[in-house]
Design goal:
The structure holds 2 protein chains of 2 kinds. Chain A is of the alpha+beta class. Helices cover 44% and strands 18% of the residues of chain A. Chain A is globular and about 55 Å long. Chain B starts with a strand and ends with a strand. The chains are: A alpha+beta, B alpha/beta. Chain B: It comes from Halanaerobium congolense.
C-alpha cells in the first residue's frame, strides 16, 4: 500500500493566525506557493490561507471578469485596498477546518478528497495534528503513474 | 522529531578533473566527476539521521532566492522536512576542484549570502514554534552576514527555556556568546584562524585550557578537534584524548558531521549514557567517512567496526 508520506513534499513553510497578510504574501512569492498552511504556536495545523482569497478581498467587485477598460481602475483600487489589508491578521482571511490528510493515509483516498473538494493541494499532518508538509495533484499523478508502471506493464 | 539548524547553507559543487591547471579549459563528460549537493553542517547531520532510520528530521535555517528553492528541493529529496525562512538574497555556491594527478584540492568559498534583520526576527519566531516536537536541537555551522553573533545564544536560550537539550558546533564570536546560554554539548571548529575564545591553539595544553574555559563559561560537555584526535571534557571535570590508529584519510568533508550524528544517535538510543562510549561512536563514524569518499553515513554497521581502531586515554590535568 502506498502512503501519503511516500509522495508528499516535506516542508514547514507556514504562517500563524496572528501574522499579517504582508508576511503571508512575501512567503507566498518567495517560496512559490500560492496556498499556505496556517499553524498555531506549537506548529499544529489550524487552517489555510489562499492567495486567491487575499485577491478577492482587495479587488472587491469583479475579480475574474476584469473589463479591460476598468483594469487600470481595478488595479489602483486593489493597491489602495492592499495598503490596509497587508497589516491585517491572517486570522481574518484564512479558511478554518480545512481537510488535512494524515501522512500515513492511503494514497488511494487522496484522489477522492482532491477531486471531491476541488483542492489542488492538501496539507499533510501527523497523527497528533502537527504540520508535516503538503501533497498536490502532481504528486497524485506521480503515484498513479507508479501504479500503472508497477502493476500493468 | 530531530531538529538541526543551518543558518548559512550552500550549494556545493565538486568537479573532479585529471589535472587542475590555470588557464586551461576542462571538459567533464562523466557525471561521476561532477557532484552537486546541498551543503551546511546541520543539514549533513540531518541527512545522516535520516539515513540511520529516524522518522521525522527537520532542518531549520535560511534559504534565499531561486537557488534557495533549488537547495530546498535537494533537501526534500532526502526526505528531510525543510523549515526555511526564504530571504531576498541568493544563497551561497561553493566550488571545489579536485585534481587527480597531481592530487590537488582547490576550493572557492562563497561568503556573499546576506540576511536582513526582518528575516532574522522571522527565524526566531519560526524556531520557537518548530521545536515543540523535538527533545534535542543540533545547531551547527557558520552565521551569514546580517545575522548578529548572538544568534546561537538566542536560539539556545529559547530551546533551554522549553526544556530541550542543545548540541552546538560553532566557532568565533558566535561560539563565545552562545556559551552563556549553557548548551549541553559543545564542539568548536576552526574556520579561518586556529583560535578558540580568541586564544591561539598550538599545543595540547592550549586546547585543554580552552576546553576548561568553555565549561566555566557554561558548556556542560566539550569535544575539541585536536589534529586527527579529539580532546574530550566530561561534565565531572575529567579530560580524555580520543585517538584513531592505523588510518588513511582520503576525505574530510562530512567527518565532523558524522561524529555529531553518531554521538547523538547513541545518546538517543541508550538509557545509560556514557560520555566515552558516545565519543567512540562519534569517532568511529568520522573515521568511516574520512576513509571513504562518502559525505553521508549509511548504516551503523558500516562504522561501528571502526571503533576498534580508536583509543581513549585519560589525561592528567
Amino acid at each position: 500500500m502506498s502512503l501519503v508520506k511516500d509522495y508528499m513534499i516535506r516542508t514547514m513553510n507556514s504562517v500563524t493566525p496572528d501574522d499579517n497578510i504582508r508576511k503571508a504574501i512575501i512567503l507566498m512569492y518567495r517560496s512559490e506557493q500560492s496556498v499556505l498552511p496556517v499553524v498555531d504556536h506549537q506548529n499544529q495545523f489550524v487552517g489555510t490561507i489562499y492567495s486567491n482569497n487575499i485577491l478577492k478581498n482587495i479587488i472587491p467587485e469583479s475579480f475574474g471578469f476584469l473589463d479591460s477598460s476598468r483594469l487600470f481602475y481595478e488595479v489602483n483600487e486593489a493597491v489602495e485596498n492592499l495598503k490596509h489589508v497587508k497589516d491585517e491578521n491572517v486570522d481574518k482571511y484564512m479558511a478554518r477546518n480545512r481537510d488535512a490528510v494524515k501522512e500515513n493515509s492511503d494514497m488511494k483516498k487522496i484522489a477522492d478528497i482532491m477531486l471531491n473538494n476541488k483542492e489542488s493541494l492538501l496539507f499533510v499532518v501527523n497523527d497528533q495534528g502537527y504540520l508535516r508538509g503538503f501533497i498536490e495533484r502532481s504528486n497524485l499523478l506521480h503515484y498513479l503513474l507508479d501504479e500503472v508502471e508497477n502493476n500493468y506493464e | 522529531m530531530i531538529t538541526t539548524v543551518t543558518l548559512n547553507p550552500s550549494i556545493d559543487r565538486e568537479y573532479f578533473v585529471e589535472k587542475n591547471e590555470v588557464m586551461k579549459n576542462q571538459f567533464i563528460y562523466n557525471e561521476e566527476n561532477l557532484k552537486v549537493y546541498p551543503g551546511g553542517k546541520g543539514l549533513i547531520s540531518a541527512i545522516n539521521f535520516k539515513e540511520l532510520g529516524y522518522g521525522d528530521v527537520q532542518n531549520i535555517g535560511f534559504v534565499g532566492g531561486k537557488q534557495g528553492l533549488f537547495f530546498e528541493k535537494m533537501v526534500q529529496e532526502h526526505n528531510i522536512i525543510s523549515n526555511y525562512i526564504h530571504t531576498e538574497r541568493e544563497i551561497r555556491n561553493n566550488v571545489k576542484i579536485i585534481g587527480k594527478e597531481p592530487a590537488t584540492y582547490t576550493q572557492y568559498n562563497d561568503y556573499t549570502f546576506e540576511v536582513e534583520k526582518e528575516e532574522v526576527d522571522e527565524l526566531i519566531i519560526r524556531f520557537k514554534r518548530s521545536i515543540s516536537e523535538s527533545e534535542c536541537i543540533l545547531i551547527s555551522g557558520s552565521v551569514p552576514v546580517g545575522v548578529d553573533f548572538d544568534i546561537y545564544q538566542r536560539l539556545i536560550k529559547i530551546a533551554k527555556d522549553k526544556g530541550k537539550s542543545v548540541f552546538l558546533q560553532a566557532s568565533g564570536e558566535a561560539l563565545k556568546l552562545a556559551l552563556e546560554s549553557e548548551p549541553d554539548v559543545v564542539t568548536p571548529y576552526f574556520k579561518h584562524h586556529k583560535t578558540i575564545l580568541d586564544m591561539e591553539m598550538e599545543e595540547k595544553k592550549d586546547y585543554i585550557k580552552a576546553g576548561k574555559k568553555m565549561q566555566e563559561m557554561g558548556a556542560k560537555r566539550v569535544m575539541i578537534p585536536f589534529h586527527c584526535d579529539r580532546i574530550l571534557f566530561d561534565k565531572n571535570g575529567d579530560v580524555y584524548q580520543l585517538s584513531p590508529r592505523g588510518y588513511c584519510i582520503i576525505n574530510w568533508l562530512g567527518a565532523g558531521d558524522a561524529y555529531n550524528t553518531a554521538y547523538l544517535d547513541y545518546a538517543f538510543k541508550t538509557d545509560k549514557f556514557d560520555f566515552i562510549e558516545a565519543n567512540l561512536r562519534g569517532g568511529a563514524a568520522a573515521l568511516w567517512i574520512a576513509e571513504n569518499r562518502a559525505v553521508y553515513l549509511k548504516e551503523r554497521k558500516d562504522y561501528n567496526g571502526c571503533s576498534d581502531r580508536l583509543e581513549v586515554t585519560k589525561l592528567e590535568v
